[in-house]
Design a protein that fits this description.
Elements: H1 3-14, H2 18-31, H3 36-48, H4 52-65, H5 70-84, H6 90-100, H7 110-118, H8 131-137, H9 142-151
Helix pairs in contact: 1-7, 2-3, 3-4, 4-5, 5-6
Length: 167
């Protein structure tokens, strides 16, 4: 995807609410099946809805269409692990996957930063949190953000020692 197309697509989607995105993305993916932004966001929506297998599929297409979306690859492998651990929360599965894949810095390319910045949510008290927690917070997954929000200010943060690992 060309730079200006990627920017325009991200900007167009960033103007929508999460509900509008969830409603529009399936039709957008059908109309433009190789659009990495559409597939990435649709994959994240599916993960948020607990539809991990479908989310993995969309994220895989996103990564193949735009390999600089490294978080898509991370989410693919985390999603595959999560399918086998349905009772588990996404956060510990994602942390384990991140560690197993040699702790990738998934926000270092301009297309990925553009996408993550466009869908960033305010960080509630994460200013002092470890870098990994702040990086994971940037992923457009409300389920993951809820789990990070719950884990960080409480004793539950000790259950996720990887959040405190220097990256």
């Amino acid at each position: 995807m060309k730079r200006h197309q990627l920017i325009q697509t991200v900007q167009r989607y960033a103007q929508l609410t999460l509900r509008q995105l969830a409603e529009r993305l399936p039709a957008e993916a059908a109309a433009r099946p190789r659009c990495p932004v559409t597939r990435y966001l649709l994959g994240c929506c599916c993960l948020d809805q607990g539809r991990a297998a479908l989310g993995v599929r969309h994220l895989m297409v996103a990564y193949h269409a735009e390999p600089r979306l490294e978080s898509a690859a991370l989410l693919v492998f985390a999603g595959l692990s999560w399918i086998g651990q349905r009772e588990a929360a996404l956060l510990p599965v994602l942390l384990t996957t991140w560690d197993e894949f040699r702790r990738p810095q998934f926000d270092r390319t301009w297309p990925e930063r553009l996408l993550l910045d466009a869908f960033a949510a305010p960080e509630p008290g994460l200013g002092q949190a470890p870098l990994l927690a702040r990086r994971l917070w940037r992923l457009p997954l409300t389920t993951l953000r809820d789990q990070i929000r719950e884990a960080m200010p409480s004793p539950a943060a000790a259950l996720y020692p990887l959040l405190a690992v220097p990256v």
